[in-house]
Design a protein that fits this description.
Number of domains: 5
Helix content: 10-25%
Number of strands: 50
CATH architecture of the largest domain: Sandwich
Number of helices: 6
Length: 749
């Protein structure tokens, strides 16, 4: 990374720092608006083998008082959990004072003597600075430090050198590695991130019967449970690079037997390597997971760790490399040894970035040949009843277009570069037709382009990329959808091509030629909601509407502890996102409580219900937001709380440029000692609380709607904050009491 930053001018450095700071602030604001619990940005190592006990470092923010963790799927025990905070005041001055001690320990020198010499040098500098300040006429500062006797105590820590050395040497290995990393790693402001500045240390025991696969790990503290990150339970032998290894102790690991799995992380400018032996003709498959473990980075471009893996011969020459797996940034590399000998696998970031959250898991295995494994590829189950066709060879022109039914689905392949496939389907005049491809969504690298020609040959519809809601890891919405009202009866020609003129056996697609089948998918976020018993907390609901469905949808609890309820779950027609609230009763015990939600809607002849998918919102590359699905939704009750029961209006109507005053009545507000004010949770643009006050048993709220506000429908959610009398009128206390039930609202032009 140093070679890169040297070529960047001072202005560019300042701009990058500003962008990173802004991204961190917006990320923290976005998270704090949704949940007050801890937030985590990486887990290292990001997995372990069944039957092992391992130490894990979790980087994040708001990790104070972390005392436990939660791993989905069962059979993983939390042996211990705590915040890494070796000294109460772990300042930069103290780090500088501890550095000579750590260096001496690593070199095998006398750390106590190194500490005494360091203290002497620092005191000399302090004395010279005091003398210079006196000459310049500056007022003298405190001279307490100047009275310290080298060897009796440290300057910035009230401990003797012997006590500090004994304390450091007595640290568990993982804590000592964290301490070394904090002290011996040169700070890099272009890489620093407050989102991963704190560390929680976990010891996990993975039971022998733990089922291999992807789990989710969360940390738990006094403020609740964190967002999840992936933690993988493996079944093959694993090696983990130590969290910190001084340069003088670095050794290249060796793969003794296959299959094997390597856990590592990439720091700025770093290249990890592992050696192995191979016989001539032996084939290997190397699969690296990096982006799959930490899907999105808010302050990095392109917004994730972009790993590159390569194999080198004994002379260091690169033999083969990979930096992705078609559309997946995580690379897959196949290698056949050209001769007997030793080889080296290297792992780095594509532009030599790095940080603690650039974690990876590299699986190395021998294979019988270089052939690519088949990609599972199937259309969504809701279309399984359609008539199926397979592509017929030679359908590469209008004259040779393949005839298919309507409605139907066709499985095809862009077998070579520049390939285009043609199909004929007969539509009646007035038919509503949906022509859709499933390719990138199914794991194929193909980027489809669909064109529809009328019976007379004119182009009547086309689409390259149809942008779906940002749910999941996809950042390129490469599939196509065309919606057509057939104006003439007869055979229409559908041309399907690869927009980037690529091809091959993996470039598969499924073409759906169908009538509209209205449907939807529902998501909630965050996946974990932290709140006090007896209170409500806000969350968001987002919809993905299919084939023009704009009807009303209702979200309800399908499985939850007794007394838990939600408000604001009715989503108006045409609306795709609303705020809602969840309430937990006062007698619900503290801890984690899984919940399940369902979404239902009435179609022409039936009521359709589906599960709601829990998600967490993540930022990519300073600006983009994505919903990343989680395995389960959790309610985390952190402690007992209390909220007044308030009479909410049935609906709030606003007009651009207007002001509305609400009187929220509550018997609790008759007690003059009780005060609170309200703010809006994630309101529509232009709507804000101008004033909120308690008067005669009511909370009076004034809402203002800006003149340029656009028409809008959804829910308004008021978050309550206690008011401190000692702090003056309406002096808001920082912690939230909770939220009031969501209220339907509308901005009318």
């Amino acid at each position: 990374m140093e070679l890169v930053t040297r070529t960047i001018g001072a202005r560019m450095k300042k701009l990058m720092l500003l962008l990173m700071f802004t991204a961190a602030i917006f990320a923290e604001w976005n998270l704090s608006a949704q949940v007050s619990g801890p937030q985590i940005g990486y887990v290292y190592p990001a997995g372990g083998r069944a039957g092992e006990t391992l130490d894990v470092v979790v980087g994040g923010m708001a990790l104070r008082n972390v005392n436990s963790a939660y791993v989905s799927g069962g059979s993983v025990t939390i042996v211990s959990a705590k915040l890494f905070n070796p000294f109460k005041n772990f300042s930069n001055d103290l780090k500088n004072e501890l550095r000579p001690i750590i260096v001496a320990i690593e070199k095998g020198d006398d750390p106590v003597a190194a500490s005494v010499k360091s203290t002497e040098r620092q005191l000399e500098r302090l004395k010279r600075q005091a003398e210079k300040d006196a000459e310049d006429g500056k007022p003298p500062g405190s001279d307490n430090m100047l009275k310290i006797v080298p060897g009796e105590r440290l300057i910035h820590l009230d401990m003797t050198p012997e006590e500090v050395v004994e304390y450091i040497k007595g640290m568990p290995p993982i804590e000592y590695q964290c301490l070394c990393k904090e002290i011996l790693t040169r700070p890099n402001p272009l890489q620093a991130s407050p989102a991963i500045a704190q560390k929680a240390l976990l010891r996990l025991k993975i039971e022998p019967d733990a089922k291999p696969g992807i789990r989710e790990l969360r940390v738990i503290g006094d403020a609740g449970v964190s967002n999840p990150l992936r933690f993988v339970v493996g079944s093959v032998p694993e090696k983990t690079e130590e969290y910190f290894i001084p340069e003088l102790k670095r050794k290249t690991p060796f793969i003794e037997a296959f299959p094997a799995l390597m856990n590592g992380e990439i720091m700025p400018g770093e290249v990890d390597s592992v050696k192995f032996e191979a016989g001539r003709g032996e084939a290997f498959l190397f699969t690296l997971k990096g982006r799959a473990l930490v899907p999105f980075l808010g302050d990095a471009v392109p917004g994730w760790f972009q790993p590159v893996i390569s194999v080198h011969g004994e002379d260091g020459a690169m033999l083969v490399s990979a930096d992705d797996n078609y559309g997946d940034p995580d690379p897959v590399l196949r290698f056949t040894a050209p001769s007997d000998g030793k080889y080296e696998m290297r792992i780095r970031d594509s532009i030599y970035r790095g940080r603690e959250d650039f974690v990876y898991r590299l699986k190395a295995e021998k294979i019988s040949g270089p052939d690519s494994p088949a990609i599972p590829f199937a259309p969504p189950g809701r279309f399984s009843h359609l008539e199926r066709f397979g592509e017929v060879d030679g359908n590469d022109s209008v004259a040779a277009a393949q005839s298919i039914g309507f409605p139907s689905m066709v499985s095809g392949t862009f077998s070579k570069s520049g390939d285009a496939d043609y199909y004929r389907a007969k539509f009646a005049e007035g038919d509503k037709v949906v022509v859709e491809t499933f390719s990138r969504r199914g794991g194929s690298p193909a980027d489809t382009l669909v064109q529809i020609f009328s019976p007379r040959g004119g182009l009547v519809a086309s689409n390259d990329d149809f942008r779906n809601p940002n749910v999941g890891l996809a950042t390129h919405h490469a599939d196509s959808i065309c919606v057509l009202d057939a104006e003439r009866e007869g055979e229409h020609v559908i041309r399907v091509s690869e927009a980037q003129r690529k091809g091959g056996g993996e470039y598969r697609y499924i073409l759906r030629v169908d009538r509209p089948r209205p449907d939807f998918a529902a998501y909630i976020y965050p996946s974990a909601i932290n709140l006090r018993s007896g209170t409500s907390a806000p969350f968001k609901i987002r919809l993905e509407r299919h084939d023009g469905f704009n009807g009303e949808i209702e979200i309800s609890l399908k499985d939850a502890p007794k007394g838990v309820s939600i408000s604001g779950g009715k989503i108006p027609s045409g609306v795709s996102e609303v705020n809602a609230t969840i309430f937990v009763p006062a007698d619900l015990k503290p801890g984690l409580h899984p919940i399940r939600l369902a979404a239902s809607a009435n179609f022409a002849d039936s009521k359709v219900e589906s599960d709601v998918v829990p998600c967490d919102e993540m930022m990519q590359a300073f600006i983009y937001y994505h919903l990343v699905p989680a395995s389960e939704a959790l309610v985390s009750v952190v402690r007992k709380g209390w909220m007044p029961a308030v009479e909410m209006p049935e609906k709030i109507e606003l007009q651009p440029g207007g002001t509305v005053e609400l009187s929220l009545k509550s018997s609790a507000l008759r007690n003059e000692k009780f005060r609170f004010c309200v703010e809006l949770f994630s309101p529509p643009k232009g709507v804000e609380v101008m004033d909120s006050r308690v008067e005669g048993g009511s909370c009076v709220v004034s809402l203002k709607c800006a003149e340029n506000s656009k028409p809008w429908r959804g829910n308004l959610v008021f978050v309550c904050y206690p008011v401190s009398k000692d702090g003056g009128k309406n002096a808001k206390v920082k912690w939230q009491m909770g939220a009031l039930p969501a209220v339907p609202a509308e901005i009318k032009p």
